[in-house]
Amino acid sequence: MSLIEIRDLSVEIGPQNPRIKKRGTPILKQIDLSMEQGEVLGLVGESGCGKTMTVLALMGLLPQRGRITEGNISFMGQDLISLPQKEMSLIRGRHISMIFQEPMSSLDPLMTIGEQLREVLVRHEGLKGRANKEKCLRLLQAVNIPEPEKIYNCPPFKLSGGMCQRVMIAMALSCEPELIIADEPTTALDVTTQAQILDTFNELRHRTRCSFIFVTHDLGIIAEIADRTAIIYAGYVVEECSVEVLFRAPLHPYTDGLMRSRMGRRNVNQGELYSIPGVVPAPGDMPSGCPFAPRCGFVEERCRREIPPLEMVEEGHKVRCWRQVPL
Fold it and tell me: pTM, whole model, 2 decimals?
């Protein structure tokens, strides 16, 4: 049994005024994803492609006007979409944890680090008193925080961004969940701190049986930590494969464009750095046919009329493209 099975997931954002009888704007379309226990899955794409919305749907944390219109999400064999909010709130934190973007704003500035860690353990494990504090200190040590006793008594605003991110990782680990979702976990950090945080994640994945989903636009992070990758564009999964295949033989023109945009990719960057022409279409202004057609250098007439299905081209490698040949 897979840890997660997402099938034909579609999400839309409804109109601002709920009394207006108007269809919502599609955000995610027919998302298919699965992962096994202990696996690290990367979700990659430009801003606005639907990466964060996918994991928010998984967590049951869609924005107020967001709703799942079709599909299902199974976690350890349990259907999450049909769960009442009270039961879903018990799964969040205990079995699935999420590390949000911008750690400085994710922590309560009016509470010490210890108070925030302690609260999670009380809620999900009923752990109190000395046992609670001892586990909090062990968690801070586990993510390589120096002087954990001192940090335990600090408010977040006295810590650096990298230190706050380590605290968020400790908080996510506190109840030993089966899955941790990291949404752009290194975006706001300098290069040295990014490397340290990635080292921490790598240590944790080898020390625990926890699975990870990394949401990022940085293919360097994917190369360093992920086992498998799903490329998301305009609300669709356009390619899914192992990291080794991703860097060796991408099939979708969008994936190839992301690869070529990296510093040092092949011989492309001998002169001006490559960038994919155009921009991601707005959710309410999608082109007909393949959403990538207006930006694609291999576009054909069929691409402008029909959206290709996500098809298995070889074992473990799926692509949503009519070409299905190496670029």
Answer: 0.90
